[in-house]
Amino acid sequence: MNSNSANMLAGARRAVSLAEPAVMGVLNVTPDSFSDGGRYVALEAALERSLVMIEQGAAIIDIGGESTRPGAAPVSTEAELERVLPVVEALRARSEIFISVDTSNPAVIQAVCAAGADMINDIRGLVRPGALEAVVAAEAAACVMHMQGEPATMQTAPSYTDVVAEVRAFLDDRVRACCAAGMAPERIVVDPGFGFGKTLEHNMALLRGVGELGAAGRPVLMGVSRKSMFARLFELDGLGARINGSLGAAFWATLQGVGIIRCHDVRETAQMVCLARHLMQQG
Ligand code: 7PJ
Q1: Residue nearest to atom 10 of ligand 1 (CA)
Q2: Of the residues 174, 198, 218, 227, which is catalytic?
Q3: Which residues lie below 8 Å from residue 148, measured CB to CB, with a gap of 6+?
Q4: Domain 4-224+252-280: assigned CATH number
Q5: Nearest C-alpha to atom 5 of ligand 1 is from which residue?
Q6: Does 262 contact ligand 1 (Cβ within 6 A)?
Q7: Does the annotation count 227 as an active-site position?
Q8: Where in the chain are the domains?
Q9: Is 202 exposed, middle or buried (0-12, 13-18, 19+ CB in 10 A)?
Q10: Catalytic residue at 262?
Q11: Chain segment 31-72, per-residue pLDDT in tens
Q12: d(Cα 123, Cα 150) in Å, to the nearest integer?
């Protein structure tokens, strides 16, 4: 595989180097924060949070307006656009940061890319009708993620014969579909989808093999930040336990050559990347 293209993620207007893992900071724009009179305050808070994450070392900001947690209700196109679009516009006006938007909706994809988003992060792997075409038309970058089932039911009874092989086969297939639809390979990253239709054992197998999941030579995005898998693993819930697990995983992922680490705790994650990179240096 061409190492130059494998070390880059290109959007229509800007690119990010993945020569060392890029830290992607999560920005949730939740329904409550945008209701009624709180709109302007919420927009300012979202912008401020983004700028803090950039200052702390985020190379990508991932804006999400659809809750994808297990059991979450679906959201209309209008509601999703109302939450996400003003944030994309405001952040683009203030910064040249690589902007990612978490969505599966073709109309949202079209609108946010027109407003300056560089990347679409789709937990459904761009399988919804029109989603892949919208990304291709916008010349945006994309993260295609594996999920077994749908958010509402995915944790009921996840089942695989060989989780690493099956997730890899799905990601290979989606990279091929993206390329066949006209997406340039340097626009694609793949994600095994930790916690999306996976038990603790499945998540651990995927984390162990995270360096080998790069479908068709494309970099891997890892999203384990604060996830319940760590509460299960440590048999102890609480933010501290979840953050500790996330940071250990970030250290491991850097050693394994992961391209992007999606996280809430940007400064701490950037420190793990820094330490691991120093230990990997020869001589
Ligand atoms: C992921 C995501 C992930 C990608 C969420 C949460 C749940 N996108 N969106 N990968 N997780 N690409 O952050 O706990 O793992 S939402």
Answers
A1: 223
A2: 227
A3: 154, 158, 159, 160, 196, 197, 198
A4: 3.20.20.20
A5: 68
A6: yes
A7: yes
A8: 4-224+252-280
A9: buried
A10: yes
A11: 655 555 567 788 999 999 999 999 999 999 999 987 776 666
A12: 10
